[in-house]
Amino acid sequence: MVQCLAPDGSVVREDLLPDPGTRLELYRQMRRARHFDERGWVLYRQGRLGVFPPFGGMEASQVGTAAALTKNDWLFPTYRDTGAALTLGLPIARTLAYWRTSPHGWHMPADLKVLPFYIPIATQYPQAVGAALAERRQGTRNVAMAFIGDGGSSEGDFHEALNFAGALNAPCVFILQNNGWAISVPTRAQTRATDLSRRADGYGIPGVRVDGNDALATYHVTREAVERARDGGGPTLIETVTYRVKPHTVADDPSRYRSEADTAGWDAKDPVTRLRTHLLNAGLMTEASEADLLAEIAAEFEAALAEADSYPEPTPAEILDHVFAEPTPQLKKQRAEILAEHAQNGTQSSKEQA
Amino acid sequence: MTAPTTHAPQPTTHKNMTMVAAINDALDIALAADDTVHIFGEDVGVMGGVFRATDGLQAKHGQERVFDTPLAEAAIVGMGIGMGLAGLKPIAEIQFAGFLYPALDQILSHLGRYRHRTRSRYHLPMVIRAPYGGGVHTPEQHADSPEAILAHTPGVKVVIPSTPADAKGLLLSAINDPDPVFFFEAIKLYRSIKEDVPTGDYRVPIGKARIVTQGDDVTVICYGGMVEVAHKAAAAAHAAGIGVEVIDLRTLVPMDTDTIITSVAKTGRAIIVTEAPRTAGFHSEIAAIIAEEAIEHLRAPIIRVTGFDAPYPPFTAVEDVYRPNPLRVAKAIRQVMDY
Ligand SMILES: Cc1ncc(C[n+]2csc(CCOP(=O)(O)OP(=O)(O)O)c2C)c(N)n1
Q1: Is pLDDT above 70 for A345?
Q2: Positive or negative CA dihedral for B78, B79, B80, B86?
Q3: What residues are in contact with ligand 1 under a 6 Å CB criterion?
Q4: Average pLDDT in the A102-114 region?
Q5: Which neighbouring-strand residues pair with B91?
Q6: For residues B332 and B338, what is the distance between their CA atoms, to the nearest angstrom?
């Protein structure tokens, strides 16, 4: 398993250390992600965010990997990968809107190739292969990165995608976040395989196992995989070994299926603390400069929250928007029905207001 | 007209329970009665299912009979087919009906045609349970109503209960049916209603509709999560002097055409209510049957009250626009009365 920093923050592989600026940037992104996760819980309890799947403790797995991409690359995130999407640049306000069940969270910025969070499991994997191939056909050096969980890697789509990507030499980076659980099912009950990165062997592509709580290690191996893909070397499967310390969703009760003993020890491997200790020890950050960073991140989040608060609620007829480029006659009739039914409320589709 | 009732003997004891408890009770009874019965799916074992429908069953009946599978719907159904071929009674849970889709190849290519393609040498006594439908603010794809896809697949039965007692009685019938049965459970109804449910091995026959309310003016045909919606509209109409006969279909395949036709022959007006999208839904099949078999009785056009031709919206603020409510049904009732 590739590791750069030990859980206590000491350097175990000097040769894998990225440059200081990158290390600081990874820390900043992990802090942004964690802030979202922590504020998300509070907002959920206040009724200001819907049910969302937390990812606290998995920041190194999401940030270190997504940070290896540029804005020209594709990102196919699952519902768990808010941290990865934020890292590539998905605006916080849009992300909040998504988890508020607002259609404003479905408007992806034009300068990003990030897809809305995938709810059905594993379907995104073959799609990432297609996007990667399309980039290569069009002569770019852009790659596609797709995320999946340990549970998701049991689905047929996962295996078909790896096989396609290998056979067709698609510039794809597959991130398999092994966080120990698929809702209530532990990885050992999910599969008899103990090293999921070796699933790559069956498809003739490189497989890498990395400490998923070590942002410098996840960044290092992902960059290698991204560069190989850009250079025509084909796909890589990266297993990030991490843990879902939090419940499956903010509404889940993990005490039904796991004990405290299962989770013991993982707090000591916390990815944010690990990089923080390293940065302080290496003199790249001081407590004072960190305090400035946290203040900046908190301010950024509150501004985004205010922006999300300013998004209007969807109007009734809006549920029929965006089904086809041109609404079918049936949809037009159905829109008229909705407008007539809700006329007394004075509601109108935002599209029509615009 | 008298309401069709079950052929089961009148049970003597009852217990007040929710629909999810009634389903759990049926599964418990089936596991105890027949050791070929096996329950499996995502999170059904240790956790007892995301809706707790299988709560406690693994502890009681063992990890071999009630077990968690890896996360793969095609394999869940495919494995169940193999179990059924080899003499077991598989009961699979698909966590949400909207996640049936990866398994459609197994269902369309195999589950529905095994009996046919082996000239009855093999048959599949498999039950697939799947929570479906909206009204509880679930995320994207968790509220789908894909029953028409299954009803359109030859060789599979489709059952959708609307009450705790029916859920128990129909599920036990499904488990004891020699053919594959899809059993859709309206998420909205799991815990929102309670009623007295007969104890013991209680059966409700597959293929018999239930008349929920009797009336001479309008027939409202519905099933699953839409029954209580239609019932509310009917109660309001009754108060206004309009007799509404609400028919809970209970089973889409086989469909109780007789109950529908008899009712429409009496009322001359038909409304069909479903939360599935409008185009090419099962409701259209019902409308076609009425047009074929009862057109001479119709005094007004058949009206469908449905979801819309858009994906089910996971937007909390406007979810209720999509899912038919009593007001929409009431409006349809006025429309056919005023025609
Ligand atoms: C096709 C499909 N089947 C079932 C589900 C329901 N479901 C949501 S999350 C989940 C577990 C996923 O576990 P894993 O892939 O390990 O990812 P994690 O949630 O741990 O990040 C399940 C079964 C789904 N969303 N999609």
Answers
A1: no
A2: positive
A3: A 80, 119-121, 149-152, 179, 181-183, 244, 248; B 42, 71, 73, 95, 99, 102
A4: 94
A5: B39, B127
A6: 10
